[in-house]
Amino acid sequence: MRSIPENDWKQLRAIQSEKLALAGERILAAAEGIAKQRKDNEHESFLKLWDETNKGNRLIAELFDDLRRSNAIFKLIAWRRNNY
Fold this sequence. Notes:
Number of helices: 3
Distance between the termini: 24 Å
Helix content: over 70%
Order of helices and strands: HHH
Radius of gyration: 16 Å
Number of strands: 0
């Protein structure tokens, strides 16, 4: 099978923005946690925030970039693996 059925594709596209919003919410919550725990060590907190932002960027790319019917199964697997 080269791609998912049309009805499944339409459902996937319909929930994509919801999943993207959830991913953004989780990434921002992690960033807020880092910002709250900085305790006079701003540079170390900045480095942690930078790392978390990069991890979030890679995750968003893995889960949502280049979503097509031909790779939808792989995106769904990635969503499941990351609890989305």
